[in-house]
Amino acid sequence: MNYIEILVSLFIIFFIINKFLLSKKLFIDPKKNSYHKTFLSSNDNIPFSGGILILISSLIFFPYEGSFFNYFLILIFAIGLFSDLEIIKSPFKRIIFQAIVIATYIHFSQNLVPYTRISLIDNLFEFYYVKFFFTLFCILVLINGSNFIDGVNGLVACYYIMVIACVIYLKYTYYVDYEILIEKVIFLTLIIFLTFNFFGKAFLGDGGAYLLSFIVGAILVNFANNYITVSPYFIVCLLWYPAYENLFSIIRKKLQKISPSKPDNKHLHHILFVFFKKLFKLDKKITNTLTGIIISIFNLFIFILATYYHSNTKILVLILILNVSIYTILYFTLRKIKF
User: Which one, 6, 12, 159, 258, has the greatest CB density within 10 A?
Assistant: First the structure.
């Protein structure tokens, strides 16, 4: 099956999934959980179908030898789905379940972060469990950060489309002998999902955000292991936004004496949404999509730059400092504006 056939198949599958969920009123977004969804009317029923599409496409199109990996995809998706359905309400319990699944995956796959190019840390990596728990920490930060940025239409899907595109580009350009089927399947799946999500017809939900970021995290750790000419800071540059969003939110809530596990609407994309709404006086639905597009354009520029310098650690570290600085300055600047 060629990639056009896969794309058409995924579109048909997703169309049927969405129709079925809407007809049965299954996995419908309650809307009360997210400030940015206030543009939805009371008659809008939007299903959490994105994660289901990613899971189905993975189970169908991933290589047979990847079936071991698929078991963990099902478990990670299930944790997010139970969160969407409010069966697992406690953020602490979700993190514990995530940690158990991810730790088991790392143990059996041995897909560990290889090195950091920081002598002290790399010396510690000589001890297996230091490397093990560092990898576990990184993936946990990524999947929960991805859930945090899932706040405006198209943002998470566009973000990971660009990440996967960077990996595919490098593999095509420098490593043509390497298998890229998994990356292409995820890329095509996200393109299909984005066509629905862009117009507010489908959401990822926690299940989709957890699943997608887990897959991409595993892909990138594996990529770093196979190609040591790629700086580990290239991987960090690709994943900086969800990771920093998570860590920044934890620190921010700690300083405000708020539980880090308590959800709020004070993430950067929320503040940008309000800022653009007041500045341009646009419809909420248009502002929602505009916010996602603007953040994605910024990250596209960063990804192009990082991909060009994918082996140059010094420049990649400067790019990371630039990202963090712009995010932090923009956040506190916008927070001071009286809307």
Answer: 159
